[in-house]
Amino acid sequence: xxxxxxxxxxxxxxxxxxxxxxxxxxxxxxxxxxxxxxxxxxxxxxxxxxxxxxxxxxxxxxxxxxxxxxxxxxxxxxxxxxxxxxxxxxxxxxxxxxxxxxxxxxxxxxxxxxxxxxxxxxxxxxxxxxxxxxxxxxxxxxxxxxxxxxxxxxxxxxxxxxxxxxxxxxxxxxxxxxxxxxxxxxxxxxxxxxxxxxxxxxxxxxxxxxxxxxxxxxxxxxxxxxxxxxxxxxxxxxxxxxxxxxxxxxxxxxxxxxxxxx
Length: 262
What we know:
By secondary structure, the chain is an all-alpha fold. It is built from 11 helices and no strands.
């Protein structure tokens, strides 16, 4: 009985590991149960026995990876707020609270852990989005409130859009196959240590949240570029028509020859 129990646990672990690897590489919608079972050396019956479905398997995987991260982020944010007293944490601090626990857990779990986090927050699957909202909505709301206190000059709707774009962009980078090269590039040739990396991440993201939004200046710039783009497109079309005309073969006219039967 003990041997069977150990073997069952081993199969479950392999299924979770296979699902994690495939999810990181391809995303939720692009991976199938067949791929998971083949990589795990198991069968569909094993998935049904241990989890019941692909969705249930992914829920367990994501819970294992994200529950602790969310708890640490919430507790660290609360600690920073207590340390500041009546002074709300500034933007750099709130970003640090997001990044520090994630990097520490990724270091403990190996390079694939960071890519998993990047994939989770950049994957477009409705299943992943719904899972995050269902399980971690309170965490998102707590951090949004902290960002709003740190950036009172930014309207809430505008803040939501900026957070969405900036953190999605960062998640896409973290999910990249050449993450180590990107991290080295972010540190601009200097030694790659966690504090330096975190400082660089904050330096990249903070301006995306604080840059002034000058509607008139932006509209004027886009109008100029759009006008030039129209001119360039017309010039390209004229050039293509000219090339086509030059390439057309010359058609020689010939009179029909009547065949006379004798």
